[in-house]
Write a structure and sequence with these properties.
By secondary structure, the protein is an alpha+beta fold. It folds into two domains: 3-77, Ubiquitin-like (UB roll) (Roll); 88-125 and 132-208, Alpha-Beta Plaits (2-Layer Sandwich). 21% of the residues lie in helices and 15% in strands. It has a five-stranded mixed beta sheet, sandwiched between helices. The chain has a two-stranded antiparallel sheet with strand order 6-9. The protein has a two-stranded antiparallel ribbon with strand order 7-8. Helix 2 (79-94) packs across helix 3 (110-117). The chain is globular and about 55 Å long. It starts with a strand and ends in a 5-residue tail after the last strand. The structure holds iron/sulfur cluster. Iron/sulfur cluster (SF4) binds next to helix 4.
C-alpha cells in the first residue's frame, strides 16, 4: 500500500493509504475528539463526536471510520464542525442522566470534559422518558451506574474483543437499549473478574471502581 496526500486544517499531510482521517490527524498532532473509539480496534463510529467536514461531501464524516483518499481536504475545527459537535455533545449529555454532582469520579468523565471544552451547558432537549437506573454494586470490582451510560459500547468491545470474555452486551432496543450482563442480570464476581479494562475505557462515570477496592 502506498501513501496519499491530504490536507487537514490547511496542513498538507502525506499518510499511508487506508489510514482513517482520525489516524492521519493523530499521527500529525491534530486532535480530533472521540468518545467511542479504542485505538487499534475496528471503529464503531457510534458517538459521532469525531465528525469532520470533507470538501465535496454532502454530509459530515466520522473521522474514526472514514478512510483518507488522495486529495481529500478535511476541516476538523471549522465553525460548522464545532456547531455540530456541540449539538452532539448536548445530545449525549441529555442521555447521561446520573448524578455527577456527588460523584468523586466526575472529573474523569471525558463527556463532561468535552462539554467544558466546547462550552456546552445543561442540555435543552426535552426528554419525555429519561432513563434512570439504580447504581449496582453487586460486583466487588466494578460499580455500574447505567444512568450515566451514553451507549458508546466501548466496554462491550473491550470485554469481547480485547479481554475476550464477552460478559457485556447491548440489551433491549431503541430508547431502552442498555449495557447488560447476560439477560440483564447482576454482574457477578464469577462472570466478571478484576481485569478492570471496561472501567479504564468508559468515557463517563458509568463504570467505576467501588470505593472499597
Ligand atoms: S458503560 Fe461506559 S463504556 Fe460502556 S457503553 Fe456505557 S458509557 Fe460506554
Amino acid at each position: 500500500m502506498g501513501n496519499v496526500n491530504v490536507n487537514i486544517d490547511g496542513r498538507k499531510i502525506r499518510v499511508r493509504e487506508g489510514s482513517t482521517i482520525l489516524e492521519a490527524a493523530t499521527a500529525n498532532g491534530i486532535t480530533i475528539p472521540t468518545l467511542c473509539h479504542i485505538k487499534g480496534q475496528v471503529p464503531s463510529g457510534v458517538c459521532r463526536v469525531c465528525v469532520v467536514e470533507v470538501e465535496g461531501s454532502r454530509t459530515m464524516m466520522g473521522a474514526c471510520h472514514t478512510p483518507v483518499a488522495e486529495g481529500m481536504v478535511i476541516h476538523s475545527k471549522s465553525p460548522k464542525v464545532i456547531a455540530v459537535r456541540k449539538v452532539i455533545v448536548e445530545l449525549l449529555l441529555t442521555a447521561h442522566t446520573g448524578d455527577c454532582v456527588n460523584d468523586s469520579n466526575a472529573e474523569n468523565c471525558a463527556l463532561h470534559n468535552l462539554a467544558s471544552d466546547y462550552e456546552v451547558g445543561a442540555p435543552h432537549f426535552n426528554v419525555r422518558n429519561p432513563r434512570f437506573y439504580p447504581a449496582e454494586e453487586s460486583n466487588p470490582y466494578v460499580k455500574r451506574d447505567m444512568s450515566k451510560c451514553i451507549l458508546c459500547r466501548k466496554c462491550v468491545k473491550v470485554c469481547g474483543e480485547v479481554v475476550r470474555k464477552d460478559v457485556l452486551s447491548i440489551g433491549y432496543r431503541g430508547f431502552r437499549s442498555k449495557v447488560v450482563s447476560g439477560f440483564d442480570e447482576a454482574l457477578t464476581a464469577e462472570a466478571c473478574r478484576d481485569c478492570l479494562k471496561c472501567i479504564e475505557h468508559c468515557p463517563t462515570g458509568a463504570l467505576s471502581a467501588p470505593a472499597r477496592v
